[in-house]
Amino acid sequence: MKTAVYYGPGKMEIEEWPVPEVGTDGILIKTRASMVCGTDVKTYARGHHMFKPPCVLGHEFSGEVVAVGPKVRAAQVGDRITAAPFINCGKCFYCRAGVAELCTSRRVLSNGSFSEYIRIDEEYAASGLIKLAPDTTWEEAALTEPLACVINAIDDMNITAGDTVAVVGAGPMGLLNAMVARYVQHGRVVVFETDELRRARVASLGFETADPAAGDAVAAVRALTDGRGADQVILAAGAVSAVPLAMSLARPGGRVMLFGGFPQGQTASFDPNLIHYKQVTVVGGSGFAPEHFTRAGEMINSHAFELSRLVSHKFTLDEIVDALAVAATPESIKVEIVFD
Asked: Are 339 and 34 in contact (CB under 8 A)?
């Protein structure tokens, strides 16, 4: 099977690997679409402690079941599916405490989705496989995993109808956060973004936008909220320099979600009186639990969002290096790897 193998920062090779053996309880999936995630981009550029080369990157995908073992009941040949990049153990302290996204004993796919085939087993499928509706496209289904991460974060924010939500950063995850926030509260979502092209794309999706570099962002959001500030703030940009802005956008008693992944070893500075006197709550969101992945699949199968509009570029697996380069630019939203 054709596979893009990661050998370290800046090193990716297209190789032929053996197709995984199905075995008695295996499910062999032919990859149809794989999205390039920000984690893939960062790993290719500078490495990542979770991905030891040589390995296969990619974890946002959809595909078709092409073979199953004789003991498999969860899927059959011909099923159109997506699968979670990991499943939780259900037994560790964090799983038992109700925060399975912090599981310490995850199981992962046979290999990443920058490859023509992936194998999972019956146990994995029980909590990590979603069957697609007949009219769900491969590219929509490949966005299930990032949507699940957003659902996890939005759940932790307790957004209610009528809240004003400020999203800082209009990359793909910022857009997904804005979409889900609007879906939840049917109210005002304002997206702050410095890049003009990305602001235009956000506006085309029906969101209010503002350039935090063009003026007083705090004054702008207060003007929209009778002087209070945003009820909820989602920092979807992985820049520690944006943390003070996110904190200052929140109203007294508001909530700030640090969603964007920050580089290791960096620290952020902000006025602690915003927490003490203004009672601003700061929470973090990363990953997902099985219930978030299930709900994401349900939303995608019901076409709750126009997710196809997030796909800005398409490449073949042979063009993976070009795809990673484009995904690192503000001109892209979601970059898709298309398989035959």
From this structure: yes
User: CA 92 to CA 292: how far, in whole Å?
Assistant: 19
Over the range 90-120, which residues count as b (16 or more CB within 10 Å of their CB) and which as e?
Answer: eeeebbeeeebbbbeebbebbbbbbbbbbbb
* Burial class of residue 35 (count of CB atoms within 10 Å of its CB; 0-12, 13-18, 19+): buried
Contact 208, 191 (CB under 8 A): yes
User: The tokens of 83 are what?
Assistant: 């699968």
Query: b/e string for 226-247 if b means 16 or more Cβ within 10 A?
Result: eeebbbbbbbbbbebebbebbb
Within the chain, which residues score under 70 in pLDDT?
A: none
Cβ distance 246 to 235 under 8 Å? Answer: yes
- Residue 266: its pLDDT value, please? 87
Cα–Cα distance for residue pair 289/304, rounded to 1 Å: 20
Which residues, 6+ apart, have CB-to-CB distance to 307 below 8 Å?
Answer: 139, 140, 143, 147, 300
Task: Report the amino acid identity of residue 41.
Answer: V
Q: For residue 209, which of 168, 244, 176, 255 has the smallest C-alpha distance?
A: 168
Report the alpha-carbon distance of residue 267 to residue 258 in Å, rounded.
13
Q: Which helix (H) or strand (E) holds 138?
A: helix 138-141
pTM: predicted TM-score of the whole model, two decimal places: 0.95
Query: Is-contact 32 69, C-beta < 8 A?
Result: no
Asked if 330 and 178 count as a contact pair (C-beta separation under 8 A), the reply is no
What SS3 string covers 236-268?
CCCCHHHHHHHHHHEEEEEEEEECCCCCCCCCC
pLDDT per residue as tens digits for the range 230-287: 999 999 998 899 999 999 999 999 999 999 988 888 898 889 999 999 999 999 999 9
List domains and CATH numbers for the chain.
2-145+288-338 (3.90.180.10), 148-284 (3.40.50.720)
Sign of dihedral through CA atoms 18, 22, 26, 29? Answer: positive
